[in-house]
Amino acid sequence: MIRVLLVDDQRLLRSGFRALLDLEDDIEVVAEAGDGAEGLALAREHLPDIALIDIRMPVVDGIEATRRIAADPALAGVHVVILTNYGFDEYVFEALRAGAAGFLVKDIVPEDFLHAVRVAARGDALLAPSITRKLINRYVTQPPHTGSGTGLKELTNREREAVALVAQGLSNDQIADSMVISPLTAKTHVNRAMAKLHARDRAQLVVMAYESGLVTPRSG
Predict the structure, then answer these.
(1) 129-133-139-140 Cα dihedral, nearest 10 degrees
(2) Which keywords does this chain's UniProt record carry (predicted)?
(3) Sign of the torsion angle spanned by Cα atoms 150, 151, 157, 159
(4) Which of 10, 38, 90, 217 is most deeply packed, by most CB within 10 A?
């Protein structure tokens, strides 16, 4: 059962998402919150698998709520999915840097919404190649952060290769094809890289790859 926390200051939207999720046999909405502070308290109380969090809210916004969830060891199993009205923008990027697994636009069709919840619950990032390209563009004029590549020294060559492919938006199956290995081995490389870099999920791995200089706009 996938346990979901809804955090949005618009009650009507929360009700709509809840009605949709409640129809699914494998998904349970465990709590709702109207702002980020309440959402954090409910996350600690219920330990959901997924926290669907609006990016712009009163008291504590979605970015700060994501940052606090990512920093709390007790919430390590909570995957944050950001909800936005505007598509990919600087706020969404900051949420990804803060530890979000991905984002959804609120006018998403129901089938895609339900699929996204299940994808996030598996620990996969909700980052399509088109979004990855926007991340690349974000770094066209920015050099890697000083010292941000230190952790990459702990990666094996194959792990570095796998991370670079994740940063290009490839799935484990696509990484396996590119590296001529099995999907299970590809997943192992990715998971080990995440552990060594202390990345919560694949989305954060993508951000780290660009910030460290492992992948550049020219190579991405």
Answers:
(1) 150
(2) DNA-binding, Phosphoprotein, Transcription, Transcription regulation
(3) negative
(4) 38
